[in-house]
């Protein structure tokens, strides 16, 4: 009986894990499609991302409920409990990445509607690829309980921030040179900010993974403290 | 024995609640001092907010640990469990409000250092007061398990958003009229955004409170659905 219960419990935990990864996959896709649509000018695609966000929101609510139910029924402790509290937090960040994809798409639609011959005048794709890679790596680290891989994600966020700062500088220069571009440059700046925030949320997820595996909270640790924590077996 | 355990458990829950309110009080104060310092030009005060954020971060980590321990030890169910998962999420939002206070202070210090005679040329105090009132009301609703009061907080966020949009428009006008103000207007825009985000986080906390009291997640509900949910006894 006990064994049966424990097996059932394992299945439930496994199911939570799988569903987080599915939600992560959907959010990844939303963000990718938003950036693609922004550069290709495919308004129909941007519209699909905008309406698709409702599914991301549903998944968050469903998974949140599922976590509470598993805690109530199974009374998990130690790593199992940390896994579930990690899921509770990670889905909040995934949902917010979904919001960013939606926001990018809405701004994209607006820009194309306002400027017949719109083309983004700064290169955001590299930063977006970095942020997307961070998101993918944080989900992988979650799936494989890999604190070292998670720590790499945390470190990578500096790169995204540096690129974001450079993009903002570039946009300021455009605005100063031609004040007629101010309104549109601000929209592009908001898109750049959304991309940067995707990196932040991926970093958050990676930090939860480290907490899950190591049992230590590294949210406000310095880079050196973080590495020490992860390499301490 | 059972009664003793249950009494102990009640004390532990009470202690979690109290500590969240203390953390909330500190965060409230950080935000208030940041806005005050921004308008009075009191750099020492802004510096205190910047360094004070470390304490907010510590409280988040401590409370997060405490929640996990109570779940592991007490195996709470129903409303007790929802209270604890609410705490886990709310402290994340409180910590982020702390970050916003720190950010406002850093931008304030920068603006005063760059412009000898700096004075904010848009009025952010009213929006900040609204956001602060939302934060206070969401913490009150949490303390009193008051879903109706929490729903009011959720509705108030629209006001903050509307004021924020008006401020952004005003800043765009300044920038267009005098491109030399672009860099500084962008800093003020970032402060306005931080204020607006405080409202968002207060709204998040209010939504968790509704979930805690009603057992139903209203995160993505329409205003009408939300009122129906809260008034349904």
Automatic annotation (TrEMBL), chains A, B:
It is found in: Cytoplasm. Keywords: Cytoplasm, Phosphate transport, Transport. SUPFAM superfamilies: PhoU-like. It comes from the Bacteria. GO terms for cellular component: cytoplasm. InterPro entries: PhoU (IPR028366), PhoU-like_sf (IPR038078), PhoU_dom (IPR026022). The keyword Protease does not apply. Residues 21-106, 125-209 form the PhoU domain. Signal peptide: none annotated. One of its GO terms (biological process) is intracellular phosphate ion homeostasis. Pfam families: PhoU. Belongs to the PhoU family. Homodimer. Plays a role in the regulation of phosphate uptake. This is Phosphate-specific transport system accessory protein PhoU. It comes from Oryzomicrobium terrae. The lineage of its organism: Bacteria, Pseudomonadati, Pseudomonadota, Betaproteobacteria, Rhodocyclales. The gene is phoU.
């Amino acid at each position: 009986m006990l064994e049966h219960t424990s097996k059932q419990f394992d299945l439930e935990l496994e199911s939570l894990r799988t569903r987080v990864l599915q939600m992560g996959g959907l959010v990844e896709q939303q963000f990718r499609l938003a950036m693609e649509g922004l550069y290709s000018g495919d308004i129909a695609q941007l519209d699909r991302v905008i309406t698709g966000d409702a599914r991301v929101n549903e998944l968050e609510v469903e998974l949140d409920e599922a976590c509470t139910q598993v805690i109530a029924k199974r009374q998990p402790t130690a790593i199992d409990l940390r896994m579930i509290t990690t899921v509770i937090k990670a889905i909040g960040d995934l949902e917010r990445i979904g919001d960013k994809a939606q926001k990018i798409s809405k701004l994209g639609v607006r820009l194309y509607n306002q400027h017949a011959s719109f083309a983004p005048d700064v290169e955001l794709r590299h930063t977006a690829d970095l942020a997307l890679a961070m998101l993918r790596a944080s989900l992988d680290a979650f799936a494989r309980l890999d604190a070292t891989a998670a720590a790499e994600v945390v470190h990578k966020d500096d790169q995204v921030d540096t690129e974001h700062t450079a993009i903002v500088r570039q946009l300021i220069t455009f605005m100063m040179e031609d004040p007629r571009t101010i309104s549109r440059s601000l929209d592009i700046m908001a898109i750049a900010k959304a991309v940067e925030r995707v990196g932040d949320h991926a970093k958050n997820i990676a930090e939860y993974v480290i907490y899950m595996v190591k049992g230590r909270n590294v949210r406000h640790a310095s880079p050196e403290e973080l590495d020490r924590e992860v390499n301490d077996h």
